[in-house]
Amino acid sequence: MRLSAITPAILGLVASVNSYSVTYSTETGYFLQDESSTDPSTFDYTAVNFGLINRTYPADRHLKHTHEYTQWERFYHQVQRLNKDSPSSVEYKVLFLGRHGEGYHNAAESYYGTPAWNCYWAELDGNSTTTWKDATLTPAGITQALKAHTFWQKQITDQRIHTPDAYFVSPLTRTLQTANYTFTDLSLPAHATKFNPLIKELFREGISIHTCDHRRSKTYVHNLFPEWRIEKGFSEEDELWNGVTGETSAAQDVRSTTALNEVFFTDEAKKADAFISITSHSGEISSILRVLGHRSFSLSTGAVIPVLVKAEKKGRDSVPVSSTSAAWEVSPHCTEPPVTSVSACVCPSSAVPVTTPLITAI
Asked: Which residue among the candidates 102, 109, 201, 205 is catalytic per the annotation?
């Protein structure tokens, strides 16, 4: 089946007669990552309380003995107050955007260099020593996810942070593993929502011709974590990846908007569920931030940033409608290892760049 024939149906981009649009914005002034002075390359979420700024809030006046509350408790109260005082068409949620830990594809890209990776090696399933198709976590990646686990537990114990009311995770293996290492077996307060994530197709990485973006079957995903929920309509095989065309940034932003619409207004969403965890990927988190109007903020592998989001729906209640679909594009690549690739990929003279999938035998 041709990708162009299935993409609009899968992404749910066909508008209904009774539909509404959603406008997203970021509420700044709460987190260091919102500020232009914060350098993403040196940002360590574990050293700065997830980036939460030490400040007072308008909602503090509704609390007695404010000094007895932690910064995170007062911030949660502020978010709850924003929702209470807003019309039904407006919702505020805090999205904890977590990037997966280092995968074998990340290690391979570092080894070969980005130009050579993009134009040849990423189109293979792996090399003689490792596999990176739908890559799993490296030992370093597992350590990064466990670092997040330890920090969440510290925040729960010391800051009495309100843990996520809902969990979403990309269906690619590295994100499934990261979410598992991060959230399983946390010691949660009695009132907290238990970790039982919803596996959501549209939160996967930007879909390129790279085999690391090719997800495995629904059966595999279910067998990996059988107690986790998989969203309705999740196909047995990957219907989005074809090894020939890839998403543009515009196309990915359409997909991210659709996913956010579902999280905020249609996907088991409740206004009271103010804290949301999304375990995803660097490219997809960048896309989400663009949709939210947030400044660009690159996350290192395993890192997490929260963002306070305002969502306002306009129009009649029924089905949220995203922007119209955007075209995908082909990516020429080498059929043999490149000759040079320090700053650009140069294919051997006998290997003219092609736009068809490589034979991926290991």
From this structure: 205
- Tell me which residue range forms the domain holding 128: 114-133+333-362
Does residue 316 sit in the same domain as residue 191? yes
Residues 257 and 314 in one domain: yes
Amino acid at 290: R
Tell me whether residue 214 is one of the annotated catalytic residues.
no
What per-residue confidence (pLDDT) applies to 342? 72
Amino acid at 211: T
Q: Is residue 182 domain-shared with residue 161, that is, in the same domain?
A: yes
Domain count, the chain: 2
Q: Which residues contact 88 (CB under 8 A, 6 or more apart)?
A: none
Q: Which residues pair with residue 294 across a beta bridge?
A: none
Verify that 204 and 71 share a domain, yes or no. Answer: yes
Catalytic residue among 77, 100, 281, 294: 100
Chain-wide mean pLDDT for the chain? 90
Amino acid identity, position 165: D
Q: Indicate if the pLDDT at residue 7 is higher than 90.
A: no
Same domain for 338 and 276, yes or no, is no
- 172 shares its domain with 91: yes
Mean pLDDT of 327-333: 87
Query: C-alpha distances in angstroms, 290 versus 59, 232, 287, 294?
Result: 29, 27, 5, 6
Q: Report the 10 Å Cβ neighbour count for 150.
A: 13
Q: Report the length, in residues, of the chain.
A: 362
Query: Quick check: is 247 catalytic?
Result: no
The predicted structure's pLDDT at residue 87: 93
Of residues 233 and 347, more confidence is placed in: 233
Assign 348 a pLDDT band (cuts: 50, 70, 90).
confident
pTM to 2 decimals? 0.91
What is the mean predicted confidence (pLDDT) over 144-165? 98
Q: How far is CA 295 from CA 33, 213, 237, in A?
A: 8, 25, 35
Neighbours of 96 (CB within 10 A): 20
Please say whether the beta carbons of 105 and 212 come within 8 A. yes
Domain holding 278: CATH number? 3.40.50.1240
